[in-house]
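Teaching assistant's notes for section 4

Start the section by putting this record on the projector. Ask students to predict, before seeing the second block, whether Hexosyltransferase will look compact or extended. Collect guesses on the board.
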Amino acid sequence: MKMSMKTWMRKPVLVLLFVTVLAPIVLYTDRLATFSSFSIDEYVSEPSTLSLNRDVRSQNLLPQELSAAKEETASDVYLGKSTRSIQLLDGERSRKTRQLNEESHEHDAIVIRQVTQGFHEADHTDNRHESTENQKLKASEHKLLSTEAETKKEGKSIEPAKTKSKKADEHVLTDTRVKYLKDQLIRARVYLSLSATRTNTQFIKELRLRMKELQRALGDATKDADLPKNANEKLKAMEQTLAKGKQIQDDCTAVVKKLRAIIHSTEEQLRVHKKQALFLTHLTAKTVPKGLHCLPLRLSTEYYSLDSSAQQFPNQEKLHHPNLFHYALFSDNVLATAVVVNSTVSNAKDPSKHVFHIVTDRLNYAAMRMWFLANPAGEATIQVENIEEFTWLNASYSPVLKQLGSQNMIDYYFKTRKSESDSNLKFRNPKYLSIMNHLRFYLAEIFPKLSKVVFLDDDIVVQKDLSGLWSIDLKGKVIGAVETCGENFHRFDRYLNFSNPLIATNFNPRACGWAYGMNVFDLEEWRKQNITQVYHSWQKLNNERQLWKLGTLPPGLITFWKRVYPLERTWHVLGLGYNPSVSHREIEKAAVIHYNGNLKPWLEIGIPKFRGYWNRFLDYDQAYMRDCNMSP
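Reveal the predicted structure now:
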């Protein structure tokens, strides 16, 4: 009975032992068989759903972390691949899961490549380890290529990963050696001035020799390609000499003090040079180039040799025709005026409808007429007048003419004084003494029979047909102009003295400024609103220049306050006479480009990349141009 009882108890124990021990082993063995039957080849044999559309970013690992990160990443990839492959399901859900797994696997492969490349750069001396990483890199690349090939075979597209190309990532410095050589020269000068090294005559002699060699090697080089072949040898020789200096002078404090002194001296020199450059720029802007001085003399001589009948322009009956397009141009620069007229006519749809009213001074009157007699502006009509013929424009009528002739004003311009680096320097240009600059405030009196006129400065170039300006409705305003309030210095407070209560109570300091150069004037509204008298009243108040400095824009802002109609910006692009960053796209879209500033295109200081827009409207093979040795 006892034996049967023991036998009966043994059976449940064996059953439990089988369930708890042997069953998991059997199940695990069956699972392994299932896993082993799912080969690696099967894992990557379904690339049709692969999508490499991730933005793979570079891994910001420190050099000492690269080795560990590389090994951990690699092991995670293969372990993750095995684990994820077990989770594949049947049907559409299985297909989507595999797509995500494949995409993640390829992303990890790319990460491995980036890490191993970074490791290769950080530790290039370990050749054996480098060889191992290259093998892994090649394996990853092989998987990517095989995946892409199979995808193409199945006729499905694959998106390239949004990674930057190797060429885009490489920033090649073309002036690295040049900068280093210059840095060596600076260090050499420091050692020359230190007390410890100055006493070592042998070192000083060697250092001076190396400096001469380095200066000859540098020359005018601005990039490494300009350096001679022996530049590297000179660099190494100087480095050895500087190392000797470092051994002689091991006191860093003295070196730091000397470098600070050099920086301070350099900054002071820079300030002085900027001040001189500003003065010389304004001085150059006042001068007349030799060619521009020769041309009026040559033209005047030719003009007075003509018969009186040959000195007349054709089509003078069109001068006051109300249905034509009339331009006002006031200038004493023959060549600049020629460019304005030529560029306008060249871009006009119907040149025969365009009439140019040119006013110049007595000295250039004959030259201006002779130029357009010898170089007719196509079918356009030309009128050249002498400002001396405007007998009504005198000191008793014009306050500004009276002020310009005063001794106080003449002293302001011509009295000998030290150069000042303030904003007044630009106002000391003698052009402001000329009434030619203020004729724009007398348009209604100069053209009493016209109802609308376009004013053009002589430093502009026209690039498109301007006839559309006459169809613009100014909506009761007197002037149409392009506003220039994109920058702070184009607002009212930059031109007017708002510390004066008369200015502060009548105008807004943050009001948007606008530009002269290309403006539409409604002369009928001008006469209705009595603009000339408004201008005169403000000029009388500014007798002592307490409201604004000299020039025509400040009184223009005041005279036409709340009387300006804003034009589209593409009508008039400014800045080509001072701002090299004006974009090519902006220039190409502009109807008129304006060389406002001191860097005029006919001067040597003009911005070279903008000079071509101006030169293309001049014929340098013209006889008078050749006689004066003028060239682009």
